[in-house]
Amino acid sequence: MASPDNLDAQAVANARAMWARDEASQKMGMEISALGLGHAVISMTVRTDMINGHGTCHGSYIFALADTAFALACNSHGPVAVASDCQISFLRPAMPDDKLTATARQTYHRGRTGIYDVAVTRVDGQTVAVFRGKSRTIGDVASKNGEIPS
Questions:
Q1: pTM: predicted TM-score of the whole model, two decimal places
Q2: What is the H or E stretch that residue 125 is in?
Q3: Are 128 and 95 in contact (CB under 8 A)?
Q4: Would you put residue 111 in left (φ > 0), alpha (ψ -120 to 50) or beta?
Q5: Top CATH class, 4-139
Q6: What are the residues facing 127 on neighbouring strands?
Q7: What single DSSP character describes residue 76?
Q8: First to last CA, the chain
């Protein structure tokens, strides 16, 4: 049986391999703050090109941040995992120049199914949104060329 340190190191390697292919999240300015088995912390600063007609951060960017943290957390186990269901509740607005942090943690994992809760917060500690994602593994670890197994 692998030691907890080896499991965590492998989880970080799995998540980083996925991150290396995630051009969309990187172009939105997301940065990894922490990774581990079943958890991830990702940050992003709200830019002016992310602002909606109400002068606040467009919800799709908040969702994308939460979804990226969820994806890294559920793919830390190794097999390719995809979202089978997710839901977000927006609690308060994020404004231009707000630094948002999405903290994902695994709450359930058995067989091919996982459930992850993600809190998106501002630097002042206020929660902007809460997200729950359900994952389903669909195959072995992704190949080096980025293909997802069928």
A1: 0.89
A2: none
A3: no
A4: left
A5: alpha beta
A6: 121
A7: G
A8: 29
Structure-token match 């581990």, residue found = 36
Are 104 and 117 within 8 A, CB to CB?
yes
pLDDT, mean over the chain: 90
Which contacts qualify for 137-143: CB closer than 8 Å, 24 or more apart?
137/77, 137/79, 137/80, 137/81, 137/112, 138/79, 138/80, 138/81, 138/82, 139/79, 139/80, 140/79, 140/80, 141/14, 141/78, 141/79, 141/80, 142/17, 142/18, 142/21, 142/80
Span 54-104, pLDDT tens digits = 999 999 999 999 999 999 999 998 889 999 999 999 999 999 999 999 999
Cα–Cα distance, 52 to 16 (Å, whole number): 31
77: left (phi over 0), alpha (psi -120 to 50) or beta: alpha
8 Å CB contact between 80 and 89: no
Could you tell me the two tokens for 4?
């907890």
Higher pLDDT, 89 or 149: 89
CA angle 135, 123, 102 (to 5 degrees): 5
The residue whose two tokens read 């799709």 is 60
